[in-house]
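#lab-general

N.A. 3:47 PM
ok so I finally got the sequence cleaned up, no stray characters, all 174 residues accounted for. can someone with queue access submit it? mine expired

B.Y. 3:52 PM
send it over

N.A. 3:53 PM
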Amino acid sequence: FRSAFPNAFSKYRGHRMTWLHSISRAINAAAEKILFVIGAAICIILFAQVFFRYAGASLGWSEEVSRHLLVAITFLGGTVAYKRASFIGLKGFGHRLGPAVQQAIVIGLQLLTLACFGLIAWFGAVYTVKAAEHTSSSLQIPMAIPFSVIPAASVIFVIHVLADIAKTLERKKS
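B.Y. 4:20 PM
back already:
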């Protein structure tokens, strides 16, 4: 794993990273590579669909595959955006109340985020198992395969949030 993702195990802000930070960074590096492959696959599939439709022989499976890959990009892309802290954030309320209150607010929000993605992972796994009985219309694969991205991405979110909580608590100690 270290050889495939050498930057994922680097030092973090001058301190040796904990194993949780290392796992979080390695998973994020893998997710970024997977997102690139999925994005390229969507481009190729849709280009082939346009080409074959123009030639008079439409690819019946291309729209379904593209739709499933777009869902995967959405969920996995959300994990990468979270790890990069690319979501919209609000500052001001906690800053005005001092660093101790600000840190308590951050930890509280992180715990709420952890609970949210824990629930999504749980219910996503239950839904994925139930979807195994159903098949997709074009590909005739169990719907559990495309739906498995929901609990998988949620578990990645949980790992990232746990790493963030650990980082916040490390800052509190120093």
